[in-house]
Amino acid sequence: MLEAFEHTAAHTSLEADFTSAEARAVFASRTSNENNVTHLEFSNIYAGAAAADRPDAIPTSQRQPLIGTALRLASVNPTPHNVAAVNAIVEHESGWDPKAINNYDINAKNGHPSRGLMQTIPTTFQAYAIPGHDRNITDPLSNLVAGIRYAIHRYGSLQQVPGVQALARNDDYRGY
After folding, report:
1. Pairing with 76, which of 13, 34, 65, 122 sits 20 to 30 Å away (CA)?
2. pLDDT tens digit string along 95-124?
3. DSSP string of 74-141?
């Protein structure tokens, strides 16, 4: 089950627990019109398991501000649509655990496991990190900035990342 970040008193009727299919449907219905994505909708899109279930996970209350800062540092407009796309990527790539390491894909087999929130490999991290945020691949802000810059360079926008497109079509997430 997925839990929402935060609810406002005016929206308490929207409960937090979604199945994956329900969350994908919410994401798909909200991504069709960027201007209609609200904070509450962001809160209900792929909020993931409780931080208590993952001791190293970034608490839900810190995620949206962290994404906003990373987007600005990456010179990307922190629209609700972009914030939701980054949240979806991070939720699926690392479960919001900045210490996450992928030890089983082709990168790991080649000696370069993906690390951090957006699961960048060291060479990608170094290529897309910015000065002052280029020394620690597991630093949440540094990893987000590098991952955002890489995704935009490779796919043209955050909405073109294969996993984000898959979710918008109500399909299962695909890694990038």
Report:
1. 122
2. 999 999 999 999 999 999 999 999 999 999
3. TT----HHHHHHHHHHHHHHTTT-TT-EE-SSHHHHTT--EETTTTB-HHHHHHH--TTS-S-TTSHH
